[in-house]
Amino acid sequence: MSKPVDAGIHTLAAPYALHALPSDEARRFEQHLERCADCRVEVDELRETAARLGAATAVTPPPRLREEVLTRIAEVRPLPPRVAGGPAPVLRRWWPRVATGLVAALVAGIVVLGIRLDDVQDELDRSQQIGAQMRQLVEADDMEMVRVGQGDSQGTVLVARSLDVAVFIGDGMAPAPDGHTYQLWLMHEDGGMVSAGVLGSPPDGHVGPVTARGLTGVDRLGVTVEPDGGSPQPTTDPVMVIDLPA
Amino acid sequence: MVTLRSVPAGGPEPEPGDRLGRLLDHCARGDTAAFEQVYDAMAGPVLGIATTVVRNRAVAEEVAQEVLIEVWRTASRYQPERGSARGWILTIAHRRAVDRVRSEQAGTDREDRVARRDDERPYDHVADEVEANVEREQVRRCLDTLTDLQRESIALAYYDGYTYREVAQLLHAPLGTVKTRLRDGLVRLRDCMGVAR
User: Fold this and answer.
1) Which residues does the UniProt record annotate as the domain RNA polymerase sigma-70 region (chain B) (predicted)?
2) Residue A164 forms contact with B (CB below 8 Å)
């Protein structure tokens, strides 16, 4: 029951342009597209053709649709253009490599510390869970990546508003002062701050991934230094602030 | 306020590509007046695609709404060198509609769905409210130049949202044959409709 290996991936341009590939094949074809300029040209032409098929189905929309759409867009900020860093597929590929690295580091750490096998298993399960969450996030149509750097420390956030999820990863962060920890906050447009979790004070400067949910009205993420255990509300100014895409 | 409406009856449809592309540019900067013009030009075909693919009118309106908001939100991501603004918007519309119908239907439902399918052409489904346009006539004429098998494969894939593997099963045809039909059919349509880039 193995699927036959498709020698001519080029023949998938038409089903791809028609959105007629199952999602796994569509992903594989997209990877191929990044390397195959001719295929991109073919897909573009076939898409344009398919769009004509769609245009022929035009109907007169009810007036309330117009009202609803115009009301809703008033509350949505258009995405900024992509500047440097390349197109989405490149950004998307970046993630699994990091995830693999994280999982490996996690496993290595556990082995070195000699924690019981059960704990290792739990951690592995957790890693797999993270992996599944990440896959879902990375596959979201509106997934965006934002990075900020302040000195040596760097914050990376993957956001998918459609899933109401943002994932934060910090790198190169100086250890928090003794008895203190980093804490992540959802910063609301109206100035409210809601804790998204304590990040700890990692000796290797690496924190996360930490998943933050509940992004309605949230336009930034912030990291503050708080007394061990975290605070219900921030007690210091953020050391890092990351603007989220709308 | 003057609204430009430019679809002369009977004449060739004006090439709206540049105008729409420029409007998207303005949308990216937050210009809601520009978006209203995009809406007026594209809401009809967007809703048409959604209605054709998902069938249920209420769900189709939901999909159309999501699509139009996505167009507003992602206007800065439109790349003119890869095709017309209209093609870009309708590609989003079709993808969203197909995603919706696939996520809502388990395999068996989908087979029922095809069993209920009658032989009318998919683009006649909503014939009463379909906007009369030159393009529709052209698509009809070009579809008529395809072989039955090409037309059927393309209709199942594009208008009904089936994967090419499902199309192969529904038509009891080998996968390779279906891929070839889809490609040859689309290429023939492309040439017939004079899709230029």
Assistant:
1) 39-105
2) no
